[in-house]
Amino acid sequence: MKIRTQTLRDFKAQGQKFSVLTSYDALTAEIFDASGIEVLLVGDSASNTVLANDGTIPITLSEMIAFGKAVARSARNALVVLDLPFGSYEISAEQALESAITAMKQTGVAAVKLEGAKLEQIKALVGAGIPVMGHVGFTPQSVHALGGFKVQGRGEGAEDIYEQCLAIEKAGAFAIVLEMVPADLAQRITKALTIPTIGIGAGNATDAQVLVWTDFAGLSSKIPKFAKQYLNLREQLGEAAKNYRDEIRSGSFPSDEQSFS
């Protein structure tokens, strides 16, 4: 079944939770899509997980477009969403619209995501027919302004995040990521909204969950508290590489089986 933004709304109405994973390349996109993951997020987390930057801020729109092309061309059923990177939408609604149009035309993704309560930007994109996913709570592009990797929405900050979510829904977003917010706040927001919420470090009452795929697969050297490691691919790849090296040293690879006569 081809997943569309309306499909996610239907899931919420039916009480059916759905899954989201990041993807930046053809191989993972094919695998996750075939496994039934409903949404693939071409996350700006590629900045640090793929490009070895310190955080998400350095990645450019052109770099994101390259990743987006690979994922959109490889997914058959999943809804593919692309992060608009830092610096590509904050200045004005016009800048956001130009960036989003470029991203949509060049990648073939179905939607874009932007961080914070950028209401005018969201309205402009939705008005132009571009589906928008919101993102509140801890927003990695604002890590310096937020004073580091901290849970957002505790105490007096809870009401501000709640109001942001209502405003983002009203502006036309089709879903909202809630990152590193208290579980009770995420539950309250999820009940208040008609659009789906996607949690990451926000408890299990949200309509969906998202993980960075390298955390999920155990490739990352450090796994965040809110992530669950479903396998240890880092260890398995390391062991396989050692075995490969050892067989070359011993002369057992390539064997007759891998050779031509």
TrEMBL record:
Active-site residues, record numbering mapped to chain: 179
Known cofactor(s): Mg(2+)
Residues given in the record as 3-methyl-2-oxobutanoate binding sites: 44-45, 83, 113
Catalysed reactions listed for this entry: (6R)-5,10-methylene-5,6,7,8-tetrahydrofolate + 3-methyl-2-oxobutanoate + H2O = 2-dehydropantoate + (6S)-5,6,7,8-tetrahydrofolate
MF (Gene Ontology): 3-methyl-2-oxobutanoate hydroxymethyltransferase activity; magnesium ion binding; methyltransferase activity
Cellular component per GO, a single term: cytoplasm
The protein, known as: 3-methyl-2-oxobutanoate hydroxymethyltransferase
Protein species of origin: Aquiluna borgnonia
Species lineage: Bacteria, Bacillati, Actinomycetota, Actinomycetes, Micrococcales
Gene behind this protein: panB
